[in-house]
Amino acid sequence: MVDEHPVRTALVELLKQRGTVTSTEAARELGGSSGLYSFHLRQLARAGTVEEVPAEGRAKPWRLRQEETLQSELNRGLEDESYQHWLAVRERAPRRWRRDQAFSEVVYLTPQEMAELGNAVRALIAGYAGRPGPDRGPVAAVARFFPLVD
Asked: I need a surface site. Which of 1, 32, 72, 145 has the fewest CB within 10 A?
């Protein structure tokens, strides 16, 4: 599993978007050196998150391990199912909880800006994690940033 290291998080997000990536491609997309991304890809491989893709030549592409891809798809399905459940029971919720903050927006970003936005949202949400209290309840915080391509 990915730890909270921002470079590794950005690499996993890039792999989710592209399928495979080399350290050189990651450096071009995310900024920084290919050596930095090569190191972190090896660390992700050591943790069992990514694996090398057989390739010819010097390029060394990486991909998410299959179970990581399946887990991501499962998580997205559970997010969608949970939101549909919320819509079905919202009117029975205590009055103070009947509103949600669902929204979507199309923004124009570079790949690096998209990764930065994702990291900023993660950091913002992390500040609210683990704070149970009498006036607080669990809230699903879901953000998806993906390119709109043909």
From this structure: 1
- ∠ CA 1-142-81, nearest 5°, is 95
Q: How many whole angstroms from its chain centre is CA 84?
A: 21
Q: Which helix (H) or strand (E) holds 78?
A: helix 66-89
Q: What's the predicted TM-score (pTM) here?
A: 0.50
Q: Cα(56)–Cα(58) distance, rounded to whole angstroms? A: 7
Instruction: Give the start-end residues of each E strand in 1-150.
Output: 20-21, 50-52, 62-64
Q: What distance separates the 2 farthest-apart alpha carbons in the chain?
A: 62
pLDDT 10s digits, 117-146: 988 998 898 888 888 888 888 888 888 888
Is the separation of the CB atoms in 106 and 146 below 8 Å? no
Alpha carbons within 13 angstroms on the beta-carbon side of residue 133 total: 6
Task: Select from 45, 39, 49 the least CA-distant residue to 16.
Answer: 49
